[in-house]
């Protein structure tokens, strides 16, 4: 009964919601509609925990048709809605907005089709990233994009944020692995974009939707490309006595024409944090930086590239180079990297992961400047990131219980982004813009460029019901800290 | 003087154009405005010579600002315009429409920036595809997409049509190699999309524009990714006594996890046509099909893959396998493939190149059906195409001087596309939709899907001035033949 969800005396708000809830229940069943305050708590934030907002109601559809029905109801009542996958996103893309419907894909976890012959898999959006590889690995295939959160994050969220991961250096981010999408757009229509083969004729709406962060619609069926598992994989661990030397080794490896499957860097602070927590006993605590380099391909190719990479590392002053070919030892070498965020959580009450991109060639310089910024603001910063594609992830450690700390960290994070953009990089490599970075968009785009993107949003989402306030800067969503930073960019008007 | 371009007595049409021509001349200079009938002849068609339409005027801007000025004038006077690169397109994408302005990029041939460190090059749209590789090959780099027409086609046209080529099997089509674009959109505004690094935040408008066939605007500066020249390249030529066996070898090579840099097939008819013209003396005239397989990478990798590919070919009944490592012999093996279209022109007064995609696994079956269709219609069809990605290019040989021949060929081409779509493929692999295939779009997309694409067109191109009548089906652009074919698709309404 609807009434059991409410206090006996209906408030004005409850009156407004009554017919809407009834419509949701009719469309997807009572068990798919969550309205109790204590149950809504879980949904107040995603992985960016510093922002919180309780949704008015959570709905849990199971099929494309149910999603379409829910979105149609939102459209009819002009209620804003936000889509949410596993809620692991780091830019607040799935952060609810006030009085919104949160459409959660947790019950859309079916792998709908596996077509090994044509190397594709069709999944519902709630399917966990790692499940795709698990479903096809027995037959010698895998799904390449592998965010750190891959054992808990969902494909739908990956599509929304165009997620990356360690293996995206060689194989590209999510957009390179999505062939087609079944979408529910904000008026409740069901649209198919792309298809079963790459490079379909007509406009590339698949590419447009991947990374649109829930502002153009919600993907309800996703056709993914899967790749053949390589014949051989080798992981090298090289340790350096300076970050500059490690950065130079990264540049030299890529310049030599080798594209490793993964190429990650960790600084001394991060190495020690990780060893404290998971004790890999592989990462030398006195190293200023380590590189983790994964090579894949044919046996002979991996063996040859291993020699070349080792030589480049040694030329750049690497002290030790360990390598692992068998899965178990490889996993051991990766273990610390995979635990880096958890380790930051262990040594600090809170941490904030920034996500920016710089040209690879400027790694050492920018890392130095990031450290200087950290000292200036009085916060420790651990660095662990995808060095191969210049995708930085500085982890700023702080204590949220200290008044004003978060605001300072936000400002420091903004300074880091400014650095990235100024040296020819980007505001985001793989975590998306979401609620966290929309106010920084004018760092990268002028008014006309942003307006052009807004046109696209407006045609799909004319009433601004789908994930309002995300991605694009509006005065409302820009914090004071960010505004202050923007004043330094006098030449660009805040859009 | 404007007047010198006209007959003494101005017609109504001339009166309409007088102020427009004046405005063009003021914007880009008199030498950039072509209006004489005999000079306009060149621009009546692109590579799809069966359709012709003389433009009202041709303009030849040199810079982004000049393009913007021209487009703004068209916008102010509400004159339709069509962009044209080198005019080598095969789907009529650059076919003028009645009473239009043709914006030709022939004077926009500057390579604006070469940044080897970051592996990118910025070019104007009139730059010839091959020039990019020429400009960077000395430093050990190349530009991967290589349409057959690469020595004459322009990068702007490649961007518009999302062109492919032999090397796109391994490295992807044009959209995978464009980082950013400076665009003039149909209201005359200049917009930057994408940038200098991949995966910029916000909507992927770069991906949206690449392949939009001039309907959303015109690219005036294009930032391209360049790749490191591989250490080793090897070309194998394997000959088979049946097309089925060659097709199975293609499937087996890809299934084995090897991705050749190129994997091309030629049938017996094509082999003989080519040998008649260029006499490579490499292609056995009695072979039912040959495969040309290019492998690239490290020396050891290429050597290992060469063994594996040869083994797969032999398993599938290949008679002879020739291979070439040195550039000169490699070129010799490729020579016939590159000359295939010219050879078709030699043995037939006219030929029509169809472009469709099928799942690789159905190669042999579909080729058989194409031959049957050819017999049924009474036309010879030569097959030479990108086998690795299932991108067919049947060459239908005909004589345009025979009344009704072109109409029959068009119908036969439509039947071939129908075959492609029915077996899970696509209307176009790399030549685009243009004027030629827009009426077939409902084969692949339902009304809602097409409408969604049209929304996108309408926001960028609301007055339908940029390349009107292309890509999307309208009753006006669908020939009777195509309409008759469409009637067989009762379940899909013609949009």
From TrEMBL, chains A, B:
Gene3D superfamilies: 3.30.465.10, 3.30.70.2740, Vanillyl-alcohol Oxidase, Chain A, domain 4 (1.10.45.10). Keywords: FAD, Flavoprotein, Oxidoreductase. PROSITE patterns: FAD_PCMH. Its EC number is 1.1.2.4. GO terms for molecular function: (S)-2-hydroxy-acid oxidase activity; D-lactate dehydrogenase (cytochrome) activity; FAD binding. The keyword GTP-binding does not apply. GO terms for cellular component: glycolate oxidase complex. InterPro entries: FAD-bd_oxidored_4_C, FAD-bd_PCMH, FAD-bd_PCMH-like_sf, FAD-bd_PCMH_sub2, FAD-linked_Oxase-like_C, FAD-linked_OxidoTrans_Type4, GlcD, Oxid_FAD_bind_N. Residues 51-229 form the FAD-binding PCMH-type domain. This is Glycolate oxidase, subunit GlcD. It comes from Rippkaea orientalis (strain PCC 8801 / RF-1). The lineage of its organism: Bacteria, Bacillati, Cyanobacteriota, Cyanophyceae, Oscillatoriophycideae.
């Amino acid at each position: 009964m609807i009434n059991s969800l409410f206090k006996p005396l209906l408030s004005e708000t409850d009156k407004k919601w009554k017919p809407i809830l009834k419509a949701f229940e009719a469309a997807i069943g009572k068990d798919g509609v969550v309205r109790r305050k204590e149950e809504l708590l879980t949904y107040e934030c995603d992985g960016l925990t510093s922002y919180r907002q309780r949704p008015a109601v959570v709905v849990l559809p199971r099929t494309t048709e149910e999603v379409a029905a829910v979105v149609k109801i939102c459209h009819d009542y002009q209620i804003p809605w936000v889509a949410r996958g596993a809620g692991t996103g780091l830019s607040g893309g799935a952060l609810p907005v006030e009085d919104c419907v949160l459409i959660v894909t947790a019950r859309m976890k079916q792998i709908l089709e596996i077509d090994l012959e044509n190397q594709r898999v069709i999944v519902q959006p709630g399917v966990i990233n790692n499940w795709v590889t698990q479903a096809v690995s027995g037959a010698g295939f895998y799904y390449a994009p592998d965010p750190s959160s891959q054992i808990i994050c969902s494909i739908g969220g990956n599509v929304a944020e165009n997620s990356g991961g360690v293996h995206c250096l060689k194989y590209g981010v999510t957009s390179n692995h999505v062939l087609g999408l079944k979408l529910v757009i904000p008026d409740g229509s069901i649209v198919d974009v792309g298809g079963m083969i790459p490079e379909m004729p007509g406009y590339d709406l698949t590419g447009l939707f991947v990374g649109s962060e829930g502002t153009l619609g919600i993907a309800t069926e996703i056709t993914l490309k899967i790749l053949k598992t390589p014949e051989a994989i080798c992981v090298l661990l090289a340790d350096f006595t300076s970050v500059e030397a490690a950065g130079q080794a990264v540049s030299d490896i890529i310049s030599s024409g080798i594209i490793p499957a993964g190429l990650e860097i960790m600084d001394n602070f991060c190495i020690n944090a990780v060893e404290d927590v998971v004790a890999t006993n592989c990462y030398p605590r006195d190293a200023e930086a380590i590189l983790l380099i994964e090579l894949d391909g044919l046996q002979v190719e991996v063996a040859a590239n291993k020699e070349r990479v080792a030589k480049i590392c040694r030329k750049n002053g690497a002290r030790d180079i360990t390598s692992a070919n068998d899965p178990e030892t490889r996993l051991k070498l990766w273990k610390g990297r995979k635990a880096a965020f958890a380790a930051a959580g262990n040594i600090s009450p809170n941490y904030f992961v920034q996500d920016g991109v710089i040209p690879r060639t400027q790694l050492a310089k920018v890392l130095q400047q990031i450290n200087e910024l950290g000292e200036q603001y009085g916060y420790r910063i651990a660095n662990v990131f995808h060095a191969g594609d210049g995708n930085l992830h500085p982890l700023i450690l702080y204590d949220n219980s200290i008044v004003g700390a978060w605001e300072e960290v936000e400002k420091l994070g903004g300074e880091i982004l400014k650095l990235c953009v100024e040296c020819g990089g980007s505001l985001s490599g793989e975590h998306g813009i979401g609620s966290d970075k929309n106010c920084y968009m004018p760092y990268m785009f002028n008014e006309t460029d942003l307006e052009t993107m807004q046109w696209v949003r407006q045609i799909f989402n004319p009433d601004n019901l789908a994930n309002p306030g995300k991605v694009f800067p509006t005065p409302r969503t820009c914090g004071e800290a960010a505004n202050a930073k923007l004043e330094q960019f006098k030449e660009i008007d805040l859009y």
